[in-house]
Amino acid sequence: MPRRISHHRRVLDKTSKTLSSISPSDIIEFSYIGSDGVRNTNLVYILNMKGKTVQAINLNYINEYSVQRLLKETDNKNFRYYSLYKDAFRTYLKSKMRSIKDVSYQTDDMLAEERRDKKIRDKGISENKDMNET
């Protein structure tokens, strides 16, 4: 079994969601009771929902770089960077999914914009201090 990776630093917000309101390209977190009876919490990118199953990419099994590439993909059927996440494809039974939450995930673009804004604010504050001191 691959090593699990935590992406909790990039999770901005979680809100409860029903199974019927999930759609492709959503990022959700849920508890899943496996065949061994162990309950795991999964963070997944939804690909498809057919019948009694959900097909997804489990983000817990790919690194942050691969997650960012996945979120920039435009076609959920023909992935450009398939080799980065091919080992993370999973199929889940809807009946075993519990505590479903919609996840707001911070992308690299969001983080870069946040840092730019902070830099501008800090620069403006330091300029105001310089003007007040003279």
Structure description:
It contains 3 helices and 6 strands; from the N terminus they run ββββααββα. A 6-stranded antiparallel beta sheet has the order 1-6-2-3-4-5, with no helix packed on it. The protein has one domain. It is of the alpha+beta class. The longest helix is centred in the last third of the chain and has 26 residues. The chain is elongated, with a radius of gyration of 19 Å.
List key phrases describing it:
six-stranded antiparallel sheet, 3 helices
Distance between the termini: 64 Å
- Beta-strand share of residues: 25-35%
Structural class: alpha+beta
Largest sheet: 6 strands, antiparallel
Q: Give the strand order of the largest sheet, numbering strands 1, 2, ... along the chain.
A: 1-6-2-3-4-5
Order of helices and strands: EEEEHHEEH
Number of helices: 3
Number of domains: 1
**What ranges have pLDDT less than 50 throughout 5 or more consecutive residues?**
none
Average of per-residue pLDDT values: 85
Identify the overall geometry.
Answer: elongated
**Quantity of strands, as a count:** 6
The radius of gyration computed from the alpha-carbon positions, rounded to a whole number of angstroms, is 19 Å
Oligomer: single chain
**Residue share in helix:** 25-40%
